[in-house]
Each structure stands twice: as C-alpha cells, then as structure tokens.
Amino acid sequence: MAEEKSVPSLKTYRGNCNCGAFRYSVKLPPFEEVTACNCSICAKKSYLWSFPISADVFVVEKGDGTLKSYEFGRKKMMHKCCPECGTAVMGQMHGGPDIGLNVRTIQDLDLDKLKKRTHDGAAIEPAYDAPVGPKPSIADASKQSYRGSCHCGKVTFELQSEPLNDLEVTDCNCNICARNGYLWIYPSSDAVQLQGEESLRHHSRYYKSDDKVAGHGFCFTCGVFVLNKLGPEAHPGIMPINVRAINGVNLDGLKIKKHDGKTLTGKPYVLDE
C-alpha cells in the first residue's frame, strides 16, 4: 500500500495595506520561509515574497480593484500597491491567475522569525539602469555624494553625507515602517537635493500622541518610498531618507539598529472600520 502523504493544515491570514483601503484574507500553510529578491524593484520596495499563491485561496475583503499597477522592463509582472498609502501588496504575472504576496502586509506576522531565502533577480537581463538624478554638488568636500531615486525615475535626489557605512541606519518596527521595509538615515534638509517632488504622494499614518508628525513620501507612479517629510516644529531641518532608495547601496555593509517604534508611537495602530 502506498504511503499517504500528510497534507499541511491551512491557516487563515489577514492582511492589508497600511491605510486599510485594501484588505484581504488568504489560506496557507503556516509560514516558515519567505523569498527576498535583490532585483531593482524588490530591493527598493523591500518585498518579502510568498510565491506562487493560488487565486482560489486569496480573498479580497475590501477594496477590490483599487490597487494601482506598475510594470517595467519585459513587463512580465504587474506590481500592485495601494494608491493612497503606497503599500506594495502583491505581484501578478501576465497570463496566469496566481499571485505573489508581499508577506509584510500580513497582520501580526513576526518577520524576524521567518527564514529568508534569497533570489538573485538582479542577474536577470536586461539589467536595470538606475535613473540619474541631480548632478553631484561640491558643497562640502568632506562629504560623499550619493544618488537615489524611485524606480521609474520621476523622483530623484542627490545626498551629501558621511559614508553610509559610518552611519547608524534605523530599522523601525512601527506599523508603516515594518510594512514597507524602510531603513532610515537622518540628513539635514540642505544636504538633500530633490527633483520631482511633485510626483510624490505623502501618506501620514505614524502618530505620536494625537498629532501626525510624518508624511511618508512615495512615487505615485511606481510606489517606491523615498523620504519622510517631518513636521517642522517637531523636527526642524531634518529630511529622513529611505536608504533603500539610494542607487547601488549595499545593505550588508550598513550598521543597522532596531528601533521599537511599535511601542513608542504612543498610540496603537488600529484600522478604521
């Protein structure tokens, strides 16, 4: 008699974009491993993938049809994010119903406990040419010049900074930072030369006491988060930059410090009904 194979039990996970305009449920075996890809868009958006997921087990609970699609290169996949808050939710290949899910959007999932399998998407041709931003300035010869951008190139910047490897980079676990995988540095505003600011959309869902003090700016076309526009009274002269938006950055060499923003925001993250 043939040995029967055990079928893993399924668990119902619920997830959402940060603002809650799009919400879903999905039935999957308990998560143990996710895929981190280093291709141009996955690196900038910090996707953690579960792929493929059958469309039969994925249910849209709210916001069906609201996600915005972005394609590039060979246009084999539609990358879908919320147009209100910019959260990257999923990808869907052309010609098939299966989806790839960004597990960062799953509620109450401990990402630190998951095994991360790497995928060398950067090796796939054609190679990505990072958008060229402002010409490097020579305002301070003691600093290094870094160029960065969203993925599509509508938003670009030049940063004058100490070497990134010498800086402390913040990895915050608050609701929006964890969901979008930000890595923050905090240069002064005059150290950042920004082009295409009109293409940014700012989403505020980070609270301290009862005041919104941060507008997380993402490109409305490709959904890549670039910077954080802080309230001038609370943080004068500072323009936090998402390190993932810096072109060619090597994250392995950075000094990354965990920040417990989830506890310190002063107000719990609660979705509006």
TrEMBL record:
InterPro entries: CENP-V-like, CENP-V/GFA, Mss4-like_sf. Pfam families: GFA (PF04828). Keywords: Metal-binding, Zinc. The keyword GTP-binding does not apply. It comes from the Eukaryota. The keyword Chloroplast does not apply. Residues 13-129, 146-270 form the CENP-V/GFA domain. PANTHER family: CENP-V_GFA DOMAIN-CONTAINING PROTEIN (PTHR28620:SF1), CENTROMERE PROTEIN V (PTHR28620). Belongs to the Gfa family. This is CENP-V/GFA domain-containing protein. It comes from Lepraria finkii.
